[in-house]
């Protein structure tokens, strides 16, 4: 049984990204809220929840169990970043627990790149040769600050050729209400992002519905990444599948992960 085979036929449901052109040496998955032992607001309709966030007031024993359950299926234990909604992308060689960054890039076979989300956008990357992969956590602040562009730059510095991107489960455009500050933050960087906002006027103020998938697509295209996949989920609208901070406030975190198979 190979590493990838171990992800099938077990009791953890995964999303397996569907992106054409992905090299056979690359594996990528995104977890759902089901499949673990977390309880209460961190649980799932069918039982225990697979909360992987250790910073959200869940029982630490449950989180440790959930993480160990995931790690048993992977070629290396996941070292999660301390995500700060910034624009720093780090080399996986420098990974250590508690490292503050919002993306990790690797050219090491067997090294898992991972980010945690619950409405923010997880983006997984691979170059077409299968030499470099990356995972990025892209909330609106990180997007506006350039986290995706910095991830692409870091990949290219490690020898990446043409890059593919997959947009994982995030808050959908019908649910992501934002203010004028968010609109201004994007349009001041890239005026082409204006059409990713739908204006909602009230008697007192202007609000917008923001398309985080559309924003990511515009920014990736501007960075030279044109093969973009995914973007069909809404974490807020699908409570049976996903944790959502905006919907629930206190909630768990899902992981999106990618790696180069070590036996290729």
Outline the structure in words.
- The chain is an alpha+beta fold and 264 residues long.
- Helix content is 20%, strand content 25%.
- It has helices at residues 60-71, 140-145, 147-157, 180-187, 212-222, 245-248; strands spanning 14-15, 26-31, 34-38, 89-91, 103-106, 113-117, 121-127, 133-138, 163-167, 177-178, 197-201, 206-210, 227-230, 254-260.
- The strands form 3 sheets. The protein has a 6-stranded mixed sheet.
- The radius of gyration is 18 Å and the shape is globular.
- Pfam families: Cu-oxidase_4.
- This is Purine nucleoside phosphorylase.
How do the strands and helices of this protein lay out in sequence?
Layout: E1 14-15, E2 26-31, E3 34-38, H1 60-71, E4 89-91, E5 103-106, E6 113-117, E7 121-127, E8 133-138, H2 140-145, H3 147-157, E9 163-167, E10 177-178, H4 180-187, E11 197-201, E12 206-210, H5 212-222, E13 227-230, H6 245-248, E14 254-260
Parallel strand pairs: 4-5, 9-13
Antiparallel strand pairs: 1-2, 2-14, 5-8, 6-14, 7-8, 7-9, 10-12, 11-12
Q: What is the C-alpha radius of gyration, as a whole number of Å?
A: 18 Å
Low-confidence stretches: 1-6
Shape: globular
Quaternary: single chain
Strand order of the largest sheet: 4-5-8-7-9-13
Task: Please give the largest β-sheet.
Answer: 6 strands, mixed
Order of helices and strands: EEEHEEEEEHHEEHEEHEHE
Instruction: State the share of residues found in helices, binned by percent.
Output: 10-25%
Helices, by number, come to 6
| Portion in beta strands | 25-35%
| Top CATH class | Alpha Beta
The fourth-level CATH homologous superfamily is CNF1/YfiH-like putative cysteine hydrolases
Task: Tell me what the CATH architecture is.
Answer: 4-Layer Sandwich
End-to-end gap:
14 Å
Query: How many domains make up the 3D coordinates?
Result: 1
Task: State mean pLDDT (0 to 100 scale).
Answer: 93
Count the E strands. 14
CATH overall fold name:
CNF1/YfiH-like putative cysteine hydrolases
Secondary structural class = alpha+beta
């Amino acid at each position: 049984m190979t590493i990838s085979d171990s992800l099938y036929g077990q009791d953890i449901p995964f999303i397996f990204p569907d992106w054409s052109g992905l090299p056979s040496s690359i594996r990528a998955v995104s977890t759902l809220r089901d499949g673990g032992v977390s309880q209460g607001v961190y649980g799932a309709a069918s039982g225990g929840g697979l909360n992987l966030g250790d910073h959200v007031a869940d029982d630490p024993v449950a989180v440790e169990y959930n993480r160990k359950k995931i790690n048993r299926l992977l070629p290396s234990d996941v070292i999660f970043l301390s995500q700060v909604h910034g624009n720093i992308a780090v080399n996986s060689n420098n990974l250590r627990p508690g490292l503050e960054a919002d993306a990790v890039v690797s050219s090491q076979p067997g090294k898992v790149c991972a980010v945690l989300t619950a409405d923010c956008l997880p983006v997984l990357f691979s170059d077409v040769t299968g030499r470099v992969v990356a995972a990025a956590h892209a909330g609106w602040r990180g997007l506006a600050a350039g986290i995706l562009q910095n991830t692409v730059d870091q990949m290219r510095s490690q020898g990446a050729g043409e890059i593919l991107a997959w947009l994982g489960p995030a808050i959908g455009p019908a649910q992501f209400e934002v203010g004028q500050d968010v609109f201004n933050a994007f349009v001041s960087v890239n005026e082409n992002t204006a059409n990713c906002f739908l204006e909602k006027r009230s008697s007192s103020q202007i609000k917008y519905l923001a398309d985080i998938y559309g924003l990511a697509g515009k920014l990736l295209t501007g960075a030279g990444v044109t093969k973009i996949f995914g973007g069909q989920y809404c974490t807020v609208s699908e409570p049976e599948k996903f944790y959502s901070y905006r919907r629930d406030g206190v909630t768990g975190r899902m992981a999106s992960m990618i790696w180069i198979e070590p036996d290729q």
